[in-house]
From TrEMBL:
SUPFAM superfamilies: NAD(P)-binding Rossmann-fold domains. InterPro entries: Ergot_Alk_Oxidoreductase, NAD(P)-bd_dom_sf. It comes from the Bacteria. PANTHER family: PRESTALK A DIFFERENTIATION PROTEIN A (PTHR43162:SF1), PTHR43162. It comes from Prauserella salsuginis. This is Nucleoside-diphosphate-sugar epimerase.
C-alpha cells in the first residue's frame, strides 16, 4: 500500500501546488498495479482516479495522518512546505512505529537560504535523523515552480492563477516579465516521484527543474492556447511589492520574489538550473515538457464538455 498526501495551494515560500502533482502520481502508480491511498482535505476531494482509496483529512492532523498511513509501506509526503510543523514530531513517530520502509518528501529549496538553522530546518533535520535511526529510507524531492500554479494559484507569485485573469480579459501585472523563471510540468514531477517511490534509492536529495520560461513567453503560450491576447503591465520592484502586499501575499514570499527574479534575470543561463533540468531528463528518460505544451493541454481541457 502507498500513501500520498496533498494540501490546497498555498502562498507560502516554496509551497508548490501539490494536488495536481499527487493526482497524476496516483494515476501513474495505479496504472503500474500499485494500491494507492490519498490523504487530502475535503476541499480537494474531487477528480481522483478510479480505484484510488480516498481519505479525507489533513497531513498536519496527527490522528488523521495516523489513520491514513496504517498498513502503508511507501509514503509520498507532500503538502507540508509552508504549513505549521507543530505536528511533525507526532507524524515522525507514526512513520517510525508503522510499516513504512521509504518516504519521499516533496520539499523546497528554502533551507539553502537559511543564514543559520531555522526552527523549520531544525525540525526537518530531526525528522531525517529519526527515520534514519528507524531504518526508513528517506528522499527529498525538491522541484522548482510547478506549472499548475498558473491554473490553481499558489506559489510562486509570477503567473499565479493567471489563467483565470486571462479568461476574464483582465490585465496581467508582472515584475521583470522578460526574466526566465524555472518551472516544471506537474505530470513530469509526478513521474519522477513515482520512479523514486518504486526505486531502491534510500537517501539523498533530488533537485529537478523543467525549462526556464519568462512571463512574456508564458502569456504568449496561454494566449495562443486560449485564443485571446493577454494584456501585460510591467511593474517596478516597488510597484510589485506594493501590489503583492495588497493582494495578500506573505512578506516572506514577497522577499523571495524580489530576490529570485533579479537573480534569474542576471543569470539567464543558470548552471544550477541546467543541472536540475538534466536530472529531470535522466529520470524521465526524455526532455521535460515545456510551458507551451502545458498550455496546449490546458486548451484541450477547456475544449471538453466538462471544461471550465
Amino acid at each position: 500500500m502507498m500513501l500520498l498526501t496533498a494540501m490546497p495551494a498555498s502562498r507560502a515560500p516554496g509551497a508548490v501546488p501539490t494536488v495536481p502533482v499527487v493526482r497524476t502520481l496516483a494515476e501513474r502508480l495505479s496504472e503500474r498495479g500499485q494500491r494507492v491511498r490519498v490523504l487530502v482535505p475535503e476541499s480537494e476531494a474531487g477528480d481522483w482516479p478510479d480505484g484510488v482509496e480516498l481519505h479525507l483529512g489533513r497531513v498536519t492532523d496527527p490522528a488523521e495522518f495516523a489513520a491514513a498511513v496504517a498498513d502503508a509501506e511507501l509514503v509520498f509526503l507532500a503538502g507540508l512546505v509552508g504549513e505549521p510543523l507543530a505536528s511533525l514530531r507526532e507524524l515522525t513517530t507514526t512513520l517510525v512505529t508503522g510499516r513504512v520502509r521509504r518516504v519521499v518528501v516533496l520539499g523546497s529549496h528554502g533551507s539553502d537560504f537559511d543564514a543559520g538553522i531555522s526552527d523549520e530546518t531544525w525540525q526537518w533535520s530531526a525528522f531525517e535523523r529519526c527515520l534514519e535511526n528507524g531504518g526508513i529510507g528517506r528522499l527529498w524531492l525538491r522541484p522548482t515552480a510547478v506549472m499548475a500554479s498558473a491554473d490553481v494559484g499558489g506559489y510562486p507569485i509570477p503567473g499565479s492563477a493567471v489563467v483565470d485573469r486571462i479568461r476574464r480579459g483582465q490585465q496581467v501585472h508582472e515584475y521583470l516579465p522578460t526574466a526566465p523563471y524555472a518551472f516544471i510540468h506537474e505530470d513530469d514531477l509526478a513521474e519522477i516521484a513515482a520512479t523514486l517511490l518504486l526505486g531502491d534509492r534510500r537517501s539523498g536529495t533530488v533537485d529537478v527543474s523543467g525549462t526556464t520560461v519568462s512571463a512574456v513567453e508564458r502569456l504568449a503560450a496561454l494566449g495562443a492556447a486560449l485564443g485571446v491576447e493577454p494584456q501585460l503591465v510591467e511593474l517596478t520592484a516597488d510597484e510589485a511589492a506594493e501590489r503583492w502586499r495588497q493582494a495578500g501575499w506573505p512578506e516572506d514570499t514577497i522577499g523571495v520574489m524580489l530576490y529570485a527574479l533579479p537573480a534569474f534575470a542576471a543569470q539567464p543561463d543558470n548552471p544550477a538550473l541546467r543541472e536540475q533540468e538534466e536530472t529531470a531528463r535522466t529520470l524521465l528518460g526524455r526532455p521535460p515538457q515545456t510551458f507551451r505544451q502545458w498550455a496546449a493541454r490546458l486548451a484541450d481541457r477547456v475544449a471538453t464538455p466538462d471544461g471550465s
